[in-house]
Amino acid sequence: MAMTIKPLSAVMAAEVTGADLTKLDRAMAKELSRALVEHLALCIRDQDLTPAQYGAAAHIFGAPKLQVLRGNRLAEVPEVSVISTTNEIGGDEPHVRATHWHTDDSYLAVPAKATMLYPRELPSAGGDTQFINCHAVLEAMPDALRRRIEGLRAVHVYRSRRAGAKVAVRTDVEREETPDVVHPLIRSHPESSRQALYINPNRIERVEGMDEAESDALLDELYAFAFEARFQYHHEWRLGDVVIWDNRCTMHRAMADFDIQEPRALHRVLLEGTVPV
Length: 277
Ligand code: SIN
What we know:
Elements (H helix, E strand, L loop, with lengths): L3 E4 L6 E4 L8 H14 L1 E4 L6 H7 L6 E2 L15 E4 L29 E8 L7 E5 H7 L2 H7 L3 E4 L15 H5 L4 E4 L1 E3 L6 E3 L6 E4 L4 H15 L5 E4 L6 E5 L3 E5 L10 E7 L6
Parallel strand pairs: 2-3
Antiparallel strand pairs: 1-2, 3-14, 4-16, 5-16, 6-14, 6-16, 7-13, 7-15, 8-9, 8-12, 10-11
Succinic acid (SIN) binds next to strand 15 and strand 16.
């Protein structure tokens, strides 16, 4: 069957069928990398991968990196981490993590360029992942608001006073690896040169050079605009999907709308990125 790539919505994301990630030739791999820049997220359907095959498939798009939280890494393939309702946050109660809008890794000086997720167990209903196209947000932004943020930078921290979702407790080593960092509010995509709003509502502490009240007011205004439904794509998972998205120009969040006693577990790979400029 030939590989086909079809848009999943008018906002962003495309569906890839007819591709087996363990058997791609060079032309197909190149086409997938190109399609990721065009569509910002790809859902590659009908994959049946061991963790080692999944980790190997990530090389199609870049270099997998080790994730900060050691406890979530798979022992046999450490570049693959587990996201599940029963790990990470601590405590005995099952919990859905990453439920507030964010872009992965922005609390690092060199954030991941892309994230891949591959579900292993899904709830019987709900548990979607939602996305925002941050190129579209910036391109639709009123001129007056855009002029106010041109040239500004934001302080990203692991645990922000403004976080809307809980984050896992770090070990001392993990804390040392994650000092506060500063990134521009607008970044240029290194492959397409297109600009995008670069915000992480779960990790931004404040806008650099502003007092708390001024910074909070600007962030609230930016977030209200960016969260409008017209910029969103909602992905309804199927077992066999491998979804990859570009963190340089999108945000995402997990939906906590399912029976928390049902398992939801996904294997996650992050790909090395570059310093946002
Ligand atoms: C993530 O933020 O990396 C995970 C999103 C999800 O669980 O849907």
